[in-house]
Amino acid sequence: MEVEKYIESGILELYVAGLLSEEENFEVYQNAQKYPEIRKEILEIEKAILQLTKASYPDLVLRKGFDDIRSRIGIKKEPKVVQLPKEEKTNWTAYSGWAAAILLGLGLFWFYNQNNELQSDIKVVEQQNEVLEQQIFEARGSLTNTQELLNDLRDKDVAVVSLGGQEVSPESYAKAYWNKRENKVFIDAQGLPEPPDGMVYQVWSLKLDPLTPTSMGLLEDFTMDENKVFVLNNPNETEAFGITLEPAGGSESPTLEQLYTLGAVTS
Amino acid sequence: MDLDELVKRFQKKDVLAFEQLYGMYWENICGAINIIVKNKYMAEEICQDVFTKIWHNAETYNPSKGRFFTWTLNIARNAAIDKVRSKSYKDQKKNLSADYFVGILNRADTDNHQDDAPVDLTALKKMVLNLKEKCLEIIEMLYFKGYTQKEASQQLDIPIGTVKTRNRSCISKLRENMNV
């Protein structure tokens, strides 16, 4: 190939202008790689056009520059600087996520405890209520009893007998309210001392001539009884009432050495 | 760095390589556009568009089909011609139909205060002053106006083979002026 003639043909100027066909372009490209003179000539032609175009650009321009290009193609100037706080940011998100989870857990635990406490409080209150209800019920019962007792004692058929203290216990006293119509005797034993363990008071109906004692019954649960009023049956023709201290379960006949109170019926 | 290597990296979307290529060619591409639109602000706007476009179409460039500058120049030329053909440009530029290089020599003494006028007249004048009007015409047609050889031969009323040789001799004179 005659390189000189090829250059002189003017094909390289058209190559730089971009006016050749695809085949011609490829041919020039291959020749340029093969022949350094051709390559050099192409660069010289390009240089001339570069100078011409550069001279055609006015000095006094805005010169937006490559920063404008960056923003146009959507690339920020220093992506690495942006990335660092980005990583930190994701860490913070994770941290705050964990913190929120822990707080939620603690909150749930607190609510659970609070709920348990409230439920046990409710149980205690319920139990207290039951106790109160029981007490009210008992108080009502006791009030009813007292009312009945008062009515019984006020009955016009009741004879009141005072029982005075005897040698064993001069301080002791008692009262017997005898309803002859109903054969019932109310013994008010408030003036008697509490019986020792294993002992019990026994009430006797006495006939004086000859002295004949008949057991009317025992004052059971003396300590526990609040008003110390005991109701006993008495169908006998009683002339006097006596109370003795006897072994638990009572005796066949009174132990006269342990006679605490005694009172005659005045008709 | 070697130009071929720079272009390869640019085609792989290396922004730093792109920035270097921009630095190498922005004045030339903007200048080529200014030759057509004859307005430096408009030229710069189109010029930035062109560089944005070559970034997005980087993979379509193939070295076996031409020089990188030639490829970019073609895209710039098309963008500038599109602008000149648009209605808004025609409305604005009714009275400026003169060809650039030929016009420069005629206008230079009278209206170089205008925004439209090329400012760096001394350098340009020095390059083109002793070129004949025939030369300026053919260079402007082939390099900046996108005329094919055939279109140029019809426009200038010369045989198609003459277009090629005349262009060769005109570019040679340009190169001589540069080396002075």
TrEMBL record, chain A:
InterPro entries: Anti-sigma-K/W_factor, RskA_C. Coiled coil: none annotated. Pfam families: RskA_C. Residues 98-255 form the Anti-sigma K factor RskA C-terminal domain. This is Anti-sigma factor domain-containing protein. It comes from Euzebyella saccharophila.
TrEMBL record, chain B:
Gene3D superfamilies: 1.10.1740.10, Winged helix-like DNA-binding domain superfamily/Winged helix DNA-binding domain. Keywords: DNA-binding, Sigma factor, Transcription, Transcription regulation. InterPro entries: RNA_pol_sigma-70-like (IPR039425), RNA_pol_sigma-70_dom (IPR014284), RNA_pol_sigma70_r2 (IPR007627), RNA_pol_sigma70_r4 (IPR007630), RNA_pol_sigma_r2 (IPR013325), RNA_pol_sigma_r3/r4-like (IPR013324), WH-like_DNA-bd_sf (IPR036388). The keyword DNA-binding applies. Residues 37-88, 131-176 form the RNA polymerase sigma-70 region domain. Coiled coil: none annotated. PANTHER family: RNA POLYMERASE ECF-TYPE SIGMA FACTO, RNA POLYMERASE SIGMA FACTOR SIGZ. NCBIfam families: sigma70-ECF. Belongs to the sigma-70 factor family. ECF subfamily. This is RNA polymerase sigma factor. It comes from Euzebyella saccharophila.
